[in-house]
Amino acid sequence: MYYYWIPVAILFLAALFSDTNTWSPFQSDQVKAICAHMTKTERRAAIRRGAWWGLLVGMVPGMIALVLGVVVFRSALVVVTVCFLVLPLIALVLYRKWLPSVVRSQQAFLASTEWARSQGIKPEDIRLYKTHENAELRAVMDSNEFVYKPCWIAYFDLLGFRKRVEQGQLGLVLPDYHGAVAALTKEAHRDIRIRWFSDTFLFYMLDNSRESLFEIDNACRSFFHRMILKRIPLRGSLTVGNLYVESDDVLIGPALIEAYDYAERQDWLGFVLTPNARDKLRSHVHNGKTDYDVLCRHDYREYDVPVKCEDGSDCPKTEKLPAYTMNLIRFDHGNQDLDEARHIWDALEDMEQMARDESQSVRAKYEKTKEFLSETVPGLSR
To answer: What confidence tens digit (pLDDT) does each residue in 18-32 have?
Structure first.
């Protein structure tokens, strides 16, 4: 009868030489991290779920083995052998219908834990078993050069870049590009990552903390301000969300897609906060005020931002978003001389003049931008 204790002994040894919170030898490292950060209530719920699934999984093969082993063959060894043989057979038969629902249920439970939510982990992002992770991805994760979590990221699109390249004017603006990036480095934006390729600039942080928000926001506003004064038209957006970063060379994720969408769809020269960024700012409350309230008092204002239609046409359309005021609110409050703000207006008029041979839709971008500035600071226009 000692054969009955063989499965029990195997499970006991597996638990003995593993962390009691993450004992399963088949768990992925992601699931182990979630389990290790579970609260007591969440751990009790996980134990109840495990007991229920264990009972469900063990009951069917156990009953079959009991009938065949004890009643038919009258052998304890047969009971143990049948248990090991019947369980994989049943799992194979029910693989297509039963297993996917079990996996989705487990993913949903793990993603609902407090720590997983704080990391922005979604059910579909969770890989339950080590077999789901190929060797190449495993090597990347073990190298400590892999990040996939909520991060702040900004996307900038330089307008008219292709024309400059085709007309051989790239050498005239490259020093300005390099100068703007170098200036950010000198201003002690140490933790911000900057990537530049063709007409695109990416700024990002490796977390979504409040400190990182102010770091990247300051850098983005400074960059946008400098480029406008250099007569380089651009548009951009700042957002927060899941981002995959590998050795700072590979960036993938919904946050990057959203930042790209909100930058490219703008039909003017502007820098905006996306809805996700706005919601995140409103969730930060200090001294009775949200970070969103503070930023809108000094650097942004809700505005009907002109955007392109989904089909790429220039039909009249707007979306209410927090738009960067290029420091004009600060000027209006008397913190600086209003004459200094006119430099921005002069830069816009110069860029509009340089675009005089462009299509009406291109020239309209400058008019829409000037209209925004005029409404922000009445009396600024001449």
So the answer is: 444 544 556 777 787
Residue range 335-357, pLDDT digits in tens: 545 666 788 899 999 999 988 88
Write down which residue in 130, 159, 191 finishes a domain. Answer: 130
State how far the Cα of 9 lies from the Cα of 366, in Å rounded to an integer: 76
Q: What is the C-alpha to C-alpha distance for residues 353 and 347, in angstroms, rounded to an integer? A: 10
Would 270 be classed as within a structural domain? yes
Residue 139 lies in a domain: no
- Domain residues for the domain of 321 are 146-376
C-alpha closest to that of 21 among 3, 2, 44, 55: 44
CA distances 256 to 116, 240, 251, Å, are 21, 9, 8
Query: What SS3 string covers 286-355?
Result: ECCEEHHHHHHHHCEEEEEEEECCCCCCCCCCEEEEEEECCCHHHHHCCCCCHHHHHHHHHHHHHHHHHC
Q: Are residues 152 and 104 in the same domain?
A: no
- Per-residue pLDDT tens digits for 160-173: 877 777 777 767 67
Do 121 and 155 lie in a common domain? no
The total number of structural domains in the chain stands at: 2
34-88: pLDDT as tens digits: 887 788 888 888 877 777 766 666 665 566 666 665 566 666 566 666 666 666 6
CA distance 92 to 312: 50
Report residue 241 CA to chain centroid gap.
2
Residues 355 and 317 in one domain: yes
Whether 120 and 151 share a structural domain: no
